């Protein structure tokens, strides 16, 4: 069964395409690594799946799950955490994001939700940190909090953008175990990653992106020397401003 499909998806900033005519499907319960050189469009693709970016052309179609059911972890560098909020409230706020729970958040969280949040905190190894302000955490501790937040969201589709970049080996190891649990529970996991060893060991599917899709399928079949050379070769030819995409205009005219 398919969780979501990308149909001839083109994503642009001011009509300059950064993801170009990508087609394929993420199976329900699969774990897919999105890999590719810097600027390949990986984060942009995740943003389009989340709904933060409207496709220029083509579609993101949700099949086995609804968009509102997904959990999304942006790159940590893009998350503001200099606000006076505790670890526990950060986790509870994550749960509140899941649709109708906003109302309950403003009315205060229930005892059951607080207990679930404390259990999630325990699962990420941060018991005792609940009253700490998030601004006082290390990057690794903060990443654990963000994973606890996803645990509470209980989402069938989980999108992670570079979850282990600048995170120490111990934290990465612990968080990868949580990803393995999600996989064992049949959740669909899509993660932008740069570490090929991590991909080979923990992700059965890979989408290799270099603005265009270079390969999409079992990781061992996609991460070949030839494919990686092709992806890097394409990256070397990128210019600051990609040409405006005319293929769609031609298709309409044809
Ligand atoms: N808001 C924006 N406005 C204009 N261009 C953007 C914007 N966000 C990203 N880009 C450009 O789109 C291209 C793809 O960016 P994206 O962040 O999706 O790449 P990436 O594959 O995630 O890269 P990295 O591995 O470096 O994180 C880059 O050339 C980037 O400069």
TrEMBL record:
Pfam families, alphabetized: ABC_tran (PF00005)
The entry's keywords: ATP-binding, Cell membrane, Membrane, Nucleotide-binding, Transport
SUPFAM superfamilies, per database record: P-loop containing nucleoside triphosphate hydrolases (SSF52540)
Ranges of residues in domain ABC transporter: 4-236
CDD domains, per database record: ABC_Metallic_Cations
PROSITE patterns reported in the protein's UniProt record: ABC_TRANSPORTER_1, ABC_TRANSPORTER_2
Gene Ontology molecular function: ATP binding; ATP hydrolysis activity
InterPro entries assigned: AAA+_ATPase, ABC_transporter-like_ATP-bd, ABC_transporter-like_CS, Metal_Ion_Import_ABC, P-loop_NTPase
Family, per entry: Belongs to the ABC transporter superfamily.
PANTHER family hit by this protein: IRON TRANSPORT SYSTEM ATP-BINDING PROTEIN HI_0361-RELATED, METAL TRANSPORT SYSTEM ATP-BINDING PROTEIN TM_0124-RELATED
Protein name: Zinc/manganese transport system ATP-binding protein
Protein source organism: Andreprevotia lacus DSM 23236
């Amino acid at each position: 069964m398919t969780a979501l499909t990308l149909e001839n998806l083109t994503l642009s900033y001011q009509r300059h395409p950064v993801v170009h005519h990508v087609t394929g499907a993420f199976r329900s319960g699969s774990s897919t690594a999105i890999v590719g050189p810097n600027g390949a469009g990986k984060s942009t693709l995740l943003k389009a799946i989340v709904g933060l970016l409207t496709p220029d052309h083509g579609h993101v179609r949700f099949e086995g799950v609804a968009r509102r059911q997904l959990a999304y972890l942006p790159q940590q560098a893009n998350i503001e955490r200099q606000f006076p909020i505790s670890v526990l409230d950060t986790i509870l706020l994550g749960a509140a994001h899941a649709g109708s729970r906003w109302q309950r958040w403003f009315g205060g969280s229930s005892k059951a939700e607080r207990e679930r949040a404390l259990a999630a905190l325990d699962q990420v190894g941060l018991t005792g940190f609940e009253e700490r302000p998030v601004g006082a955490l290390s990057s690794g501790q903060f990443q654990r909090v963000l994973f606890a937040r996803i645990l509470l969201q209980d989402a069938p589709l989980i999108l992670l953008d570079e979850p282990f970049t600048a995170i120490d080996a111990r934290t990465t190891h612990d968080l990868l175990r949580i990803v393995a649990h999600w996989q064992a529970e049949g959740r669909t996991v899509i993660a932008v990653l740069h570490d090929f060893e991590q991909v080979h060991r923990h992700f059965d599917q890979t989408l290799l992106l270099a603005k265009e899709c270079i390969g999409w399928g079992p990781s061992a079949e996609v991460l070949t020397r030839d494919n990686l050379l092709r992806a890097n070769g394409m990256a070397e030819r990128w210019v600051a401003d990609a040409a405006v995409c005319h293929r769609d205009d031609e298709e309409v005219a044809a």
